[in-house]
Amino acid sequence: MHYLQFDKEQLVNLEYSLFKEILRSNRAGSYLSTTLNGCNTRKYHGLLVCPIANFGGEKHVLLSSLDETVIQNEAEFNLGIHRYKGGTYEPKGHKYIRNVEFDAIPKITYRVGGVVLTKERLLVEKEEQVLIKYTLEEATSPTTLRLKPFLAFRNIHQLSKANMYVNRKFGKAKNGIKTCLYKGYPDLYMQSSKAVDFVAVPDWYYDIEYLKELNRGYDYLEDLFVPGYFEFPMKKGESIVFAAGLKEANPVSLKQRFTREQKKRGDKETFNSVLEQAAHQFVMHRGYTADIVAGFPWYNSITRQTFVALPGLCLAFNDSKLCEKILDSYLKYFNDGFFPDRVNDQNLEYHSADTSLWFIWVIQQYFKKKNNPKALWKLYGTAIKRILNAYKNNNLEYIKMLPNGLIYAEKKDTALTWMNSSVNGKAILPRSGMAVEVNALWFNAICFALDLADMAGDQGFIDEWKHMCKTVAQSFLKTFWSEGHAYLADVVKDENQDWAVRPNMLIAVAMDYTPLSKEQQKQVLSVAKRKLLTNRGLRTLSPDHLRYFGIINGGPEEREIAVHQGAVWPWLLQFFVEAYLKIHKRGGLPFVKQIMESFETEMTENCIGNISEMYDGDPPHSGRGAISQAWNVAGVSYALNMVQHYSD
């Protein structure tokens, strides 16, 4: 039995299947995403979404969807489904779905009278090509399959509208056609493993409605272009493979290519294996470099999130070499001890008070796996020194070390921590001053660097920095701790302490090096457990706070205000679990296991086999934001690994 299970009786129910999404990536920037029943509910959905070099590498939806029609005894049964303006569904192909299986790849079974047709889809690894395999499992009379492609050829953030400039012409390709709707785009090749007839019937389909965009307050109506349709007979037991890609394929090899690609995908038989497959989808290979996509469908890489995610992702697929490759790729953008917010932006910005400290944390986690201090110091010692000196010497005017040894960060209208949502260019939660997690990371970085330098024999570095541990520890406790509150202030500015209960204080408990005593750590954990912990991660603000938002809804501005004022973020769970097990050891396992087990239901709730960007602070903690986020998958994988470590 497959790990990911669905209620067969509910598959024809739109309320059930419309809100469950599918995601596949090719590990080179392209992806496939739609809903369980195939009805696109986002402008970001599509069967082939690719970065286009001529447009700055931004992702573009090329093949939006592909409608299948089964023809038997001159009767036509359309298996496609679209939502049109006003909420009208046409056709209603979802009513023919009888089963959906998620093993290595999703497999959908349709039944139309005496016909049983299965459909399997995958993206070719590191290539811009989607392969769709159709198998006629049962048929009582001659059967024909018709395929109608809906094309968009537009940026993922925009919508296509009917126009006079679309190129209605197409060229011939082996067992198919090639077409390019607009100048600047590459040709899209659509081919079949079997000889096929293409009937040119160019036309626009107007006012296709995207429900998710409607609910999110964005433009939601699109016109899609259909150049015509492919048609071919099928026999019982026969399989054909349809390919859509940016290079012409050899039709003879399409079946073998599908089988070869399918074998690369691991089975999804356990919670861990599902997370492992999800983790692989975030890796993006580019020649000799590698990167992490922060989330799908709309994110590229985000440096802070890459570093936070790296240990968990590399644990998930047991590949420390990949960790090195990604770190080395980012060091190319290293400037005066700081990393840019996003390495793929045309104009690099350095608006993070903590990202460089997370880099040192990654090295620290890597050391636990490799345990070769001299080699590690040789590889990354210079970078670590540059980072520490950058903070100490105030290389960025808005991020500086104070005389008490703590880090102060402030820039007008700009958030410099991970809580960086903004509206109209102004930060919702600036957190200007001394942020608790920044200084927890700072203390941890100094102590780890000193220990690593000691093992590597770098006495000069030790002499320069050894006095800082005591200074920072004393200042940290004096600044953030209060016996009356029994937890840590979130941010301190001009001696004003913000006592809002937020999860950032957990990072001070979870770090290997912390200024907190054992009793102080327990008290912080107790408050976090009582006020922030949910079965989807940790709230960003305690529900008893006046500014707490329990549900992320409304338009873009309303949602931005809510995302750090109560929304639940799963990536924080790894730090809660690490802190909890550090304090309670094996005695904490029953409670932690209960948290992790409750997370398993999420695997079939929103994006199948993935973890959403964030969740409502209020029960039932509905998924919000991007449908799959790297540091969330990594955080849960990291936490599961810790549970296993303490269980052994």
Task: Looking at this protein, list some descriptive labels.
single chain, 648 residues, alpha+beta, Beta-galactosidase, Chain A, domain 5, Glycosyltransferase, 3 domains, 8-stranded antiparallel β-sheet, 17 helices, 31% helix, 28% strand
Explain this structure to me?
There is one protein chain. The chain has 648 residues and is of the alpha+beta class. The chain folds into three domains: 8-263, Beta-galactosidase, Chain A, domain 5, CATH 2.70.98; 270-316 and 532-648, no CATH class; 333-528, Glycosyltransferase (Alpha/alpha barrel). Helix content is 31%, strand content 28%. The strands form eleven sheets. Strands 1, 2, 3, 4, 5, 12, 16 and 17 form an eight-stranded antiparallel beta sheet that branches. Strands 8-9-10-11-18-15-14-13 form an eight-stranded antiparallel beta sheet, covered by helices on one side. Helix 9 packs antiparallel against helix 10 (459-465) and helix 13 (518-531) packs across helix 15. It is elongated and about 85 Å long.
